[in-house]
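quick one before i forget lol
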Amino acid sequence: MSGNALREEKDEKKRRTLTDFLKDEARQKGFDVCRVALPDSIPRAPERLTDFLAQDFHGTMDWMAETAERRADPRVLWGDVRSVVLFGMNYGPDEDPRALQDRPDRGAISVYARNRDYHDLIKGRLKEVATRFAARAGEDVKVFVDTAPVMEKPLAEQAGLGWQGKHTNLVSRDFGSWLFLGSLFTTAELLVDTPERDHCGSCRACLDACPTDAFPAPYRIDARRCISYLTIEHKGPIDPELRQKIGNRIYGCDDCLAACPWNKFAATASEMKLQAREDLKEPQLSDLLGLDDATFRTFFSGSPVKRIGRDRFVRNCLIAAGNSGDISLLGPCLALADDASPVVRGMAVWALSRLMPSGDFSQFAARRHSETNPEVLAEWKLAGVV
């Protein structure tokens, strides 16, 4: 055997040893899947991202445009990267989260947000894996969980974790649409896994499940109509046309994920799967509407919900209250009509206009003389009060 052949055999053995070590560490830390892609494996990503941004489908998420160059190519983010490792953790729920739509007095919080912030959970475990791997490999590593400009879903597809479904989220043959993703960039050369192909076929269950028609076409999403975007990223008043369609979804939306037929495989979750807090599974709107800033921060301590702040969250709860038809929520909504936050006051007007009999609402409106905020005044006008 020639010297070159011996070196290649040695390098191959090293790559296999390091890859096996990394995947074993991932399993021990509770990850359900761990696979490897090359950093140059998503050549079509820049074009797709450019098209998405050009159509303003990103709404007010300006950071997507600002980081577009780094987001589209891992090598721009870190020039020395040789392998990208994708990790997946199943967070599939024990029941269909859409069932909560039949309980309009309750608030529906997206499954992923019903306990600790998954960014913290996964990043902590990834750092443990990365530390041990770096010591073993003698190579540099960087870990990322959603917050960095990494196109995790296209990379996960190339690594073989799943494919991007028609709802634009990752779908796995083993875990359905319920995978948290994280990535590890390294200067080490590892064995690359086989990409996954699209298995959606003619199915359009996820597209048909969207309450707000946020998918202009399969594999394309307009965030400006997406309930997850509207209830989490969007800061001001929500488009009146979409409010009724939001129902009681007060943080995120799982409908397109829950509709995916591949979820039947998601029951094979890791024993280390994050379990939902009981008080976040179906919280009462009457309790949530009464949260001030301090109680909001305490109640959602450690939860991703805390990131949007009390005012935006109560705005969402007022929309749910207005959609509920539950007159027992009149008291909390009336109290919020005098809230210090304009976005809360405005949504309180909308909720009250839907919950109060027209005569009572007219009498209530006659007493409103001090409002000067233009957004709140626009809500009064929308409610028929000039």
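fyi The chain has two domains: 3-283, 284-386.
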